[in-house]
Fold each of these.
Amino acid sequence: MTTTASAHNLLTDNPELYETRFPDPERLAGRWTEDCLRRHGAGPRVLDMGCGTGRDAARLHAAGRRVTGADLSEAMLAHARVHHPGPEYVRADLHGFDLGRGVYDAVVCLDSALLYCHTNDQLDGFLASCRRALSPGGLLVAEMRNGAYFLGRTDLLDAPAVHTFVWQGVRYRSTTTLTVDRTAQLLRRTRVWTSDGGREPVEQRSAWRLLFPQELRHLLGAHGFEVLELHDGPGPRTEPAWHEGLEPGRTTDADRLHVVARLAGAAPAP
Ligand SMILES: C[S@@+](CC[C@H](N)C(=O)[O-])C[C@H]1O[C@@H](n2cnc3c(N)ncnc32)[C@H](O)[C@@H]1O
């Protein structure tokens, strides 16, 4: 069988497919984020970095916030403007962005978008950009994979994960293999897509930074943030999932990591 390697990402190139593969009909991620923002008294201006299809940005907009959604993928932004209107959508790179100084009360970064910062320089670039964008006392809310989960556990690495679903009448099958690159501190993903439409299989590779809770705490402190919450759930992608009324946990052992941090109350960084 021939496999075509692709530099594109089938999911971010096809936002409808993304929402089909990763449905969130109850807008749990947006509701969880709004709950964090309220609990810590965030003001109304929110930047959603790595906003993807825009569904979380639109949920925050519906909750009364003034939202900017930012992403690197033009396809995602185009989809968001049509299907999840309300927020303003702009193209920006989370490795380093300048959308104004002190103009947001919160930056949110959901579903591991932060882990597309692979290197220390990219993480520093992201946090320095957040610091510039936030007003004094502004919040950073992020939700992602937990690097610490992979210490001593191999259940997600032992066998490929296979998912099948139907989109626009075509059955798709994705086979995802995860490997740990200890030197780069990355979780590398190889995903092979097949469909019953007769197309050649497509192989796509991507990676997430394996970020550890105490490393994240240290990085946030170095960039002027005080950590208010750092825990493994409940959250929008935990099992069982978060619902309104549940308090944040205290452990960082399971496979998702949730962080809420506040920028110190000084003037925004130069
Ligand atoms: C896993 S999706 C998450 C989307 C959305 N936050 C959600 O929770 O549904 C990751 C998103 O990050 C975006 N992304 C990847 N690298 C990026 C970068 N360097 N700057 C901005 N966005 C990026 C992708 O285009 C994609 O939309």
Amino acid sequence: MARRCQICGKLSPTQSQRCDCGYDFVTGEVGGAIERANIDSQLAVTGIVGGGGMIAAGVLGAVLGGALAWWLALEGFAVLAWGLGCAGSVSLVIAVVGLVKMVKATAAQREAARRGRTAEDRKALPEARALD
Ligand SMILES: [Zn+2]
């Protein structure tokens, strides 16, 4: 038999004292879970900001690279234009990776916030522990 965490919903072995999220199965203490949720939430926000930065840098690089490549091509510098075109493409890939990172971090942030709220609710209603 496994026990399901009341905070995050994950299953843990029956003999474990604490869930990965910080919830204490034995005492019903939620302080650790609240702390963990706050840390996870902050890390996720860092990821969202980082992803946003990658998108901005990637789009800017692609636009500048593309414009410069176009100009160089018109001026007859085919090889340079091709190189900058490639750099522009790499920038687009960076922007896409940034977008994926941002979406994932947003989901992680929402999950951590939900976990934090569940833990806070439990803290406010200690009698709910008796139902475990
Ligand atoms: Zn948990």
